[in-house]
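R.M. (postdoc): so does anyone remember the format we settled on? I'll just put the structure tokens first.
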């Protein structure tokens, strides 16, 4: 599903958010979280601290929130997921729907390496990144339940699938980071999903 056309004001809002986010990631990766201030980020991005606070509540948020339109991106993922033919398995359909956004990891390698470095080195950033995803959980579970025709309050599958695939994404990002982004995050994600769908066999085909 194509991204909706945005007006000039909305494009400017998204561009300013991106400029602040990428600047925050770069400065924190270079200096460390404790040695970067909101004023530093604002000055480097060419805006005032007042403008910064129109977009972020804190410097931590500027590091972990890559895009201003997270809710809209989640909805587009859901729309792609629900539009996938029923012949495609639900886990594969879900991952395929994620790929458009997940591709940004490969496309913006330095930014994501910096973000991962900052999160790895600062427990507060890790906690904020987890909290940031909280609002996306319920609509994603509801979408999985809708596609599979089950009641998410009575059946484990929707929540279990989302948790499993979320764990796969985290594992992929960690391995990608350990390889300094020199492997394709999208390829790693495909490998992770195929491994899960195969029943998580041990490497080398060792039997249990």
């Amino acid at each position: 599903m194509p991204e909706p056309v945005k007006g000039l004001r909305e494009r400017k809002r998204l561009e300013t958010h991106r400029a602040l986010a990428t600047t925050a990631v770069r400065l924190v990766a270079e200096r460390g979280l404790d040695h970067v201030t909101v004023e530093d980020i604002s000055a480097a991005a060419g805006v005032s601290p007042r403008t910064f606070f129109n977009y972020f509540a804190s410097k931590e948020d500027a590091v972990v929130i890559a895009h201003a339109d997270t809710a809209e991106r989640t909805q587009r993922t859901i729309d792609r997921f629900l539009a996938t033919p029923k012949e495609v398995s639900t886990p594969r359909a879900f991952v395929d729907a994620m790929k458009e956004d997940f591709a940004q990891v490969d496309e913006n390698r330095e930014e994501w390496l910096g973000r991962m470095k900052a999160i790895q080195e600062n427990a507060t950033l890790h906690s904020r990144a987890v909290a940031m995803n909280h609002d996306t959980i319920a609509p994603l579970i509801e979408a999985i339940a809708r596609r599979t025709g089950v009641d998410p309050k009575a059946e484990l599958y929707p929540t279990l699938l989302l948790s499993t695939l979320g764990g796969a994404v985290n594992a992929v990002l960690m391995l990608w980071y350990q390889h300094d982004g020199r492997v394709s995050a999208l390829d790693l994600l495909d490998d992770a999903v195929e491994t899960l769908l195969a029943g998580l066999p041990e490497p080398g085909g060792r039997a249990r």
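R.M.: ...and that's the designed sequence above, right after the tokens. Also worth knowing: The chain has a mean pLDDT of 94. Residues 8-31 form the longest helix (24 residues).
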